[in-house]
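Thread: Newbie trying to understand structure tokens

Hi all, I'm a second-year student working on a class project, and my supervisor (Dr. K.) asked me to get a predicted structure for one chain before our next meeting. I've only ever worked with sequences, so writing a 3D structure as a token string is new to me. If someone could post the tokens and maybe explain what I'm looking at, I'd be very grateful. Here's the chain:
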Amino acid sequence: MSPAMLKMWVSFAGMAFMFLAIILILFSRHKLKGTVRILTAFVAYVFMILSGIIMFVTIFA
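---
Reply by user tm_fold:
Sure, no problem. This is what the structure looks like when written as tokens:
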């Protein structure tokens, strides 16, 4: 696999992480309560941070 194709797939993973983060944040804010809400929000924010790092590396690499 060429470096450009690998970069494309990594950027798709970053977009998928961003999409999952948005869905999980909305779900945790509107549907969940208690500890599950906190855990889901934490996972969502981890996905958001990972997607930001992936996008940053993809753009500037």
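A couple of things are worth pointing out once you decode it. The chain has one domain: 13-60. Helices lie at 3-30, 35-60. Feel free to ask follow-ups in this thread.
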